[in-house]
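request received
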Amino acid sequence: MDQFLAAVDGAWRVLLTCLLLGAGLPSLYTIGLRNLAFADGALNDQVSGGRRGLHRAIAYALFAIVVLAILLGLSYIIAHGFGWSIGFNGIVPTFTKK
Amino acid sequence: MNGAATGGVRTVADGRSDALTMSNVTPELILLGLVVLTALAFDFTNGFHDTANAMATSIATRALTPKAAVTLSAVLNLVGAFLSVEVALTVTNSVIKIQNADGSPKGEFLAGGGHLLLVILLAGLAGAITWNLLTWLFGLPSSSSHALFGGLIGSTLAAVGPNAVKWIGTGAKLDGVIGKVVLPALFAPVIAGIVAATGTWLVMRLSRTISQRYANAGFKWGQIGTASLVSLSHGTNDAQKTMGVITLALIGAGMWHDTHAIPWEVKVACAIAIALGTFLGGWRIIRTMGKGLVEISPPQGVAAESSSACVILASSQLGFALSTTHVATGSIMGTGLGAPGGKVRWRVAGRMVIAWLITLPCAGAVGALMYLLDPLLGPIWGPIVIFGIMVGLALWMFLHSRRDIVDPHNVNDEWEPTTPAPEKASV
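response:
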């Protein structure tokens, strides 16, 4: 029973983290894509006009967030491989030698 | 690379030198050679069994050509295998008790040049390979780690008895067959499925108004990025397991003494074996995961791979390591459930779940039977026959697979040719 509870404890943490990142980040990416599509006139229901420059800027900002998250994932894999652990005090990741 | 130069001391087994009179080729050396070969073969099957986890979605949505996908995945697995310097020597400790806490083999397994330890490893690996190949033949994604654990549990049971198996951990620390194998396998597909279904629903809703060509081009990069993360993390995790097993065998045979380093030759050999396996591409499994379970559209591909990458990395960070295979298949099923009008082929999913359930006991049964050949046939012929039977079974399954070949040319063919699947409306 202790083992089952420990698994449930691990499971809901992973689930919450990944609902935020695993489902949230591709959604951000898609919002970015939609803004970029607007700037390029590639929406199905495109109306002419609108502030295309602004939408392009929003798109790139969102893509930057997603790229940062992928780099974080990458640095996690590498740090883990070299025997470092990564902690998230607040939001900023910190690396410490195990 | 410097492990061999600084940390390791290689000697011919101390105190056994007297036995090496006639020539250097002793039965122990032959046995060690067979274990190393079998371990590398397992690493190879691990590679092609798991290519689908990272690349099935990208291949199915044509974000990457089949050849480009397996090449990218193979390179990342190779890089991943070298990225990792942590020593995974204690890999068997979560399910069986043949090693001390520092990874060195327990004394009672070391008599006669580590014969008992080496035969347990040989029979366990043979069981794992046999099961990996059989599931591949049926195109079923099953966890290579479960197969490895299953094989080793089986051979240990046959060699020592139930007391040498760690069935369940104590207290709240997840350990043993229950805590490290059964419970994670129950939770992994559910977690990944929920995340992927949520992601799919959001991404498809948000991308509705984007023209399809524009969206597909954008989602292509999203898929390649996330699939690359999954491949890299696979290389760091899975190649290590084989490195750990081979190093354990070398220690058992008295050829290596350092529990804090892995011989660089072992590292290079394992990295190459898993990368070659990945490059070969387990097309039968890729087809099941990319076309059989769910018809995947590009937005679903992004959502599924993001979910897989996130769940694999987050679970490892949070100390609740989940099998890549279970996560990836869970994500793909979730993406079928989350898509408006999407459907999961439950018959295929059902076959897969059955394969998951029986992976551990079946690999274990083969491992146990293989082990029994050693006391039956003696310390010289036992291992040779075990190896021979494994090679024979592998060959038989390979020849069987030639009857209906699945390769890069037909991997993306319609799953049910008579009733073409309805076009996905991703506009």
